[in-house]
Amino acid sequence: ASLGFYDMALHFFGGALISLTILIFLKNRTVFHFIFAFTATITIGVFWESFEMLLDIFLTPNFTFPIPRNNLLDTISDIFFDGAGSIFMVIIYFIRNTFSRASKILS
Fold first, then answer.
1. For the residues 67-75, what does the mean pLDDT come to?
2. How far is CA 76 from CA 32, 52, 63, in A?
3. How much is the pLDDT for 54?
4. What distance in Å separates the CA atoms of residue 102 and residue 107, rounded to the nearest whole number?
5. Are 16 and 85 in contact (CB under 8 A)?
6. Phi and psi angles of residue 29, each rounded to the nearest 5 degrees, phi first
7. At what angle are helices 31-59 and 5-25 packed, to 10 degrees?
8. Which residues, other chains included, contact 87 with Cβ-Cβ below 8 Å and sequence gap of 6+?
9. Per-residue pLDDT at 57 exceeds 50
């Protein structure tokens, strides 16, 4: 079930946190690593939404097929905000990493 703004904020910050965690564990931060953090976050989001959908199918009494439109829109919205949070964190981390490297070279 969608909780509106709260749901969007949780997925945004969840996507950002997953990307940050991945980037912290990667040693050499190349463009590939930033792309990897984004795609891994989206993949985790898709798996989570699939898990949620399976729970809905098997645990909701009288679940109907085809899947109701509002459920699909909620799922798409959740994955979008996972990705938006990931992109936000990847950009912030990339900028921070670039400037910290530049300041070390200049000093």
1. 80
2. 26, 13, 19
3. 87
4. 9
5. yes
6. -95, 90
7. 140
8. 38
9. yes
Among 105, 82, 104, 103, residue whose Cα is nearest residue 18: 82
DSSP reduced 3-state for 66: coil
C-alpha pair distances (Å), 99 with each of 11, 12, 95, 106: 28, 25, 6, 10
85 and 37 in contact (C-beta within 8 Å)? no
% helix, strand, coil for the chain, step of 5: 80, 0, 20
- Residue 34: which of 100, 95, 77 has the closest Cα? 95
- Specify the pTM: 0.82
Question: Tokens standing for 46?
Answer: 């898709």
pLDDT at 101: 66
